[in-house]
Design goal:
The structure is a single chain. By secondary structure, the chain is an all-alpha fold. The protein has a single domain, classed as ABC transporter involved in vitamin B12 uptake, BtuC (Orthogonal Bundle), CATH 1.10.3470.10. It contains 13 helices and 2 strands; from the N terminus they run ααααββααααααααα. The radius of gyration is 20 Å and the shape is globular.
Length: 327
Amino acid sequence: MIVAATIGPVRLSTRQVVQGLLASLGLAEGVDPVVTSVVGSIRAPRVVLGALVGAALASAGVAMQALFRNPLADAGLLGVSSGGALGSALAIVVFGEVSASIPALAATRPAAAFAGGLIATVVILRIGRRGGAADVGIMLLAGVAMNAISGSMLGLLSHVASDAQLRDITFWTLGNLSNASWRTVAVTAPPMLACTYLLPFFAQKLDVYQLGEAEARHLGVDTGALVRALVVLAALAVGGTVAAAGLVGFVGLVVPHATRLVMGGLHRGVAIAAPLMGALLLVVADAVARWVVSPAELPVGVLTAALGAPFFLVLVLRARRAREGPT
């Protein structure tokens, strides 16, 4: 994180970053005020937000892969991400022209993104309930429908948006951390950290759940409550990440699978290590996005997609070969 904070239009050394951090906290004197301002107000919140987003997406990926008992599952399957993107796009179209001049409206975009993700989650949970229990298959189908509905509405909003609003919508849906601030960190950190902190407490139940829903129920696991808890935690994490940084894809797919290769299949180790690996991945990806076309920057979602899409294809091919068996 310290090395990532050195990268940007104003190149800093690691020593300057540390001094800037200490000065911004009032623990050092005689530091260049430009360095203090750049590090304390721009670089530090961006790096911290990137770490939080990466950790939350990785935790949500662990939860979804455990829920569907499939390493190809991702939080985007349930439509939470697309619901958040739709809420954000709606805020851009409705408030985009005046939010720049009215500070109170600056928070409408992340608030709308979070609200959109939560609404999508509530709808999916209501549709997925059957006889008081949660039906994972119905929830998955509801997520596919939610993604389709959100995609069509995003297309409609893009059609009626102005040129400036269309650029904002496009940049938001690609995923970026350029609008990071300590206020954004403070607002979006609680829902993102909720999944990261609470998921390890479900580790033992998740291990039993991998045997099958019926087997887990016979062994004393309340599978309905477990499914609802996993969906809510994943929704909080993804809603927070969409509110903070837009759509950042494939982190929730790549990181949990890579963590299992290192930690094994038990969920306690995976649930603890995956957020650390996700934070590392997104901080590095954002640093590369700022460095590769400096002084401009690439949306971080473009880099994570470039990494995740080939990885996803490798997983699909491995799954197909496993089903076909040895030849």
